[in-house]
Amino acid sequence: MAQLKVTLIHSAAHRLPKQRKIVEALGLKRVNSSVLQPDNEATRGALFQIAHLIKVEEVK
Questions:
Q1: Any stretches that span the bilayer, and where are they?
Q2: Strands, E assignment, the chain
Q3: Which pLDDT value is given to residue 60?
Q4: Backbone angles phi, psi at 13, to 5 degrees
Q5: Residue 20: which domain range?
Q6: Has residue 51 been placed in a domain?
Q7: What is the pLDDT of residue 20?
Q8: Do 46 and 6 meet the contact criterion of CB atoms below 8 Å apart?
């Protein structure tokens, strides 16, 4: 299964509470922090909600 490397490129400060919770749930803490997440529907849905804050790369 492929994984997604998610990098926070914009701060979650001054964003909607739902968006801040998604950033925290994904394990992103600071700007330029990255995490590996599984490539599934739930993860893709969360990433879609905060697409304007992150950069996503596919890792094999």
A1: none
A2: 3-8, 34-38, 54-59
A3: 85
A4: -65, 145
A5: 3-55
A6: yes
A7: 98
A8: no
